Amino acid sequence: MSLPLTVDAREHGLVGDGTTDDRPALAELVDALGAACAADGRPRIIRVPAGRYLIRDEPVVWRSGVSLIGAGRGATCFVLANPGNRAQPVPLAWFTDSRHGASRDNHLADLTFAHFEIDGSGVRTEEYDPLAKGLGLQYVRRARFSDLYLHDTAATGFGCDFLQDTVVEGVLAERCGRQDPGEAMGGAGIGIGVGGWGAVERLTITACTAVGNTTNGIFLELQEEKWPPPRGIRVIACHTEDNRYGISDWGTDGLLVTSCTMIGNHEAGFDVSSHGTTAVAGRGGIVTGCVIDGNVRDGVAIGNTPGPYALRGNRISRNGRYGYWQHNLAGGDQEPTADIVLESNDIRDNALDGVRIDADLRDAAVLGNRIRNNGRRAAPAASGGGPGVRCTELSLVDEGADWPPDGHRGKRLTVGGQSALVTYNTATELALAPARPGVPTAWPGGTPAPGTPYELPDAPAPRSGLTIAADVTRPQVQSNRVEDDQEARTQTHAVWVTGTGHWTGGRVTGNDFTRNAASSTRFDTPPSGGRWRDNDG
Fold first, then answer.
1. Which residues share a beta bridge with 145?
2. Which residues belong to any copy of the Carbohydrate-binding/sugar hydrolysis domain (predicted)?
């Protein structure tokens, strides 16, 4: 029997009452429509009216040319559950290389997933399983994923790999990676494996939001070390908040990240490193026009990459440690990174250094930045307790305190037998980071009782605009304003070369190094060679 191009799910056995298992009817319908598309080459659409559709104990194996379109977020909801088989991950739809032989020659094509919700809170596997996603498709062409809400999945929410000629738009991922211990594979809001289509994967991720996911808000990860990192991937106008990492490049070439906000993430707002499964970091990327603000530790963390990488025209502010941190993780590439460009960024109000170099660089360019008012973690040690001291889920108040604003940013507060990280402070209140992404409290052991004694450590020093603690060769540092214009200055120096740092060659010209708390420069290791001229301060 010929099947129409558009079908109503209710007319093909789906109930949507939240208790009937709709998986068998949906699987049968997907198979029938997939077979029809294979026979006549005409893609089909399943329209799913409002309702709660239970997908129980097994996922639906998807077919090429079959689209799934709901009535909107909150209206059409697929409820995932595995009470009858705790060993079985249950994404709504899957098609993978390991289970189904997905490949370049055996791929899905011409499909749309749009206007529905996936609730993954009912899935719990015996051990953490990275396949326990909301969506888990591999090798897909000409697809559009639009207006989806995925939440509370055991592993990654949107976990699709090898997406060619594809758009991911308007996807909201919240509290995904529920069973991830925090450093395992997956566990992200939006996690996309790359490299399967070769040197170019034409993928756009736009207007997506990822909040409170256990590992990453959005990651792009090379899946085989032998594959070339692909070009052609863009992340535009996305928001990441309260994830371990905001946006991570773990193995692309030339990733474009534009007009995104990366706020309140626990390790870094933007991350390039060898954290991925193949330990290959991205390279050749450009980050521009982004707000990278108030992350618990670092704003931008880049390492294990051969380079180049460029950050232009971003605001990198109020982060709990460094604004920009160059570093290397063990197990990844340890060679010097070449051609890092920091240009026209506003790097300000970070807790320690504005820019910190802890891994070797060559031929870097630091041009036209405003690196100012960093080193905000300048308040002395403090302690208290008794009357006037109280805690909420995400704060501590001491009515008798008189702390300098944000002087404790990034410090570890100890209250009783628990500790939490300070994100900012007023004269009498410390705002605290959640104990882990996606939870509403800083206190895993329960909110401390009123009057419980607390302690804050002393401020570290120095805290400079630009700190060199590794080998830096032939840098170009030009036309930057590295200063502190606060009434009580906290940025101790414009440039500090530590005892472990070495500055060799290059040009340092036309910079404003005036108005820092201690002095313009501090050279524990004097620079060697190069040209320093026309600098104020």
1. 113, 168
2. 229-392
